[in-house]
Amino acid sequence: MLFSSPQSLLELNLVPEEWGGNTPMVPISAKKGTGIDDLLQAVAWVAEEKQLMANATKLAAGTVIEAHLDKKRGAVATLLVQAGTLRTGDIVSCGACCGKVRSLTNSAGRPVGEAGPSIAVQLIGLNAVPNAGDEFQAHTNDGDARKAADAAGEGLRAARIAEMSTTGSMVTLSSLATFDEDTDTLQRMNLIIKGDTSGVVEAIKGALQGLPQESVVLRYLLCAAGDITTSDVDLAAASSGMVVGFNLNPDEAVLSHAKRLGVTINTYKVIYNLIDDVKAAMEGKLRTIEERQPLGTATVKAVFGSGKKKVAGVVVDEGKLQKGAQMEVTRGKDTIVYTGKVASLRRIKDNVEEVQVGLECGVGADEWTSWQEGDVIKCYLVVTKSQRLEEARAATAVDVNSLSDRGRRRRPAQQQQRTSTRCEQQQQQYRNGSSSSRSGRQLAAISSCGCRRQQLHQQQLSQPAAGLSCKLQHCMAPAAAAAAVVRGAAAAAALCVAAGQWRPQPAAAAAAAAAAAGGGWCSWQVVMQHTAAAYEAF
């Protein structure tokens, strides 16, 4: 192992001193605790030889290691001074915060008047709690510090808005108007995260981002260091959110206020418990799924009775038959002729609740008497179960793959020729402006993609994409554009493929253009405008 290290250094054009070079190499062992003193001496020697010294006379600058809100002292930030000297009374900007240094405390907890390069101190005097990783800078006057803090704050807000727009977690009037918690659309869970330090809050956010969010997306309404306040409770009540605190003990006034508003405050000391509870809350928003639980199969050997009193005489081949359970009757090569409930089971002359394997019995069905010898009965129970996030992710992946496979199916050549001719005619009408109205010209341009019209399910009519599709004679291209505005360009592409379009690229381009122009939900005229332009370009 020791021999491989010099070899690796040679690959980087670093020659160890033992081999005639000028790169010091100090063997150490963290396991045995050897070589640490030699390493420190080597670092000091190289720094002295190369004169690697910080300028202690300039204005102080460095990085925030940790920060938290103290009830008595206010915002407390742990800083590492990397350049200059930080002194009590200096005016500093720290990320989006600023203030005057009231006190400095060293690692031993003793107050100090100044801190030079490579010294870590606790600073008190900022007007807010900075984020871990923020850079701080000392200034000559208060105005410069405020300008630097305002500029950093604008940058943080822009980055946060961009992130929320990308992840679909932005809270806007349009998103509140178009989002329906009762539909099968993407669910969102609002979170308010408070911790004792900013580093803890960032760590919690990072851990939560690892949860599957294909069906339920986490929306962070507030993530900050400090105690849980009544304002946090009000925000949670207004947005049906969840308040999560870490290493915090809420006041009695806050707890009573939360109880009055029906808001639950969850506090934790272990991050794994926090993740498990948030995951359980996310899974609670998933719709339940129905699964078949097979009970048994039987074969029809004879048919008895006449008219509406026909029953099937069967032999149970596997498992059992159960009265009240669901059954599926297949005939021939797996042709399903009936699906319904097992209305009655008779063994000899007695009505029974179930019949086990190997026994004969009579089976009756409600309002169905078309039994034939050789029919196969599959008996099963329909079980409703809750989904897990991992199962929802797998189901989403299967749905996307099935849509893609369906979209790849080609239409017959004769239909392709008819579509191509119609496309050329409609494109020419659009270029000549012969359509009766602008909307007509746009619809003609959209139709030129050759997308087939579909009758949408009645349950989907409340969704924005489906609503646009109905307004525009069930044309799937505007539905794709609307889907992009609501769910992103990926949803639009999937919808185009599902519609069996020949060239989904125009709809995807229109979707992206509409989303970029609207910045959220926009009117169907805007969607149509960008869709028509995209089809004309393609």
TrEMBL record:
Annotated transmembrane regions: none
Name this protein carries in UniProt: Translation initiation factor IF-2, chloroplastic
Example GO molecular function: GTPase activity
Family: Belongs to the TRAFAC class translation factor GTPase superfamily. Classic translation factor GTPase family. IF-2 subfamily.
Keyword Protein biosynthesis: yes
Biological role: One of the essential components for the initiation of protein synthesis. Protects formylmethionyl-tRNA from spontaneous hydrolysis and promotes its binding to the 30S ribosomal subunits. Also involved in the hydrolysis of GTP during the formation of the 70S ribosomal complex.
Highest taxon in the source lineage: Eukaryota
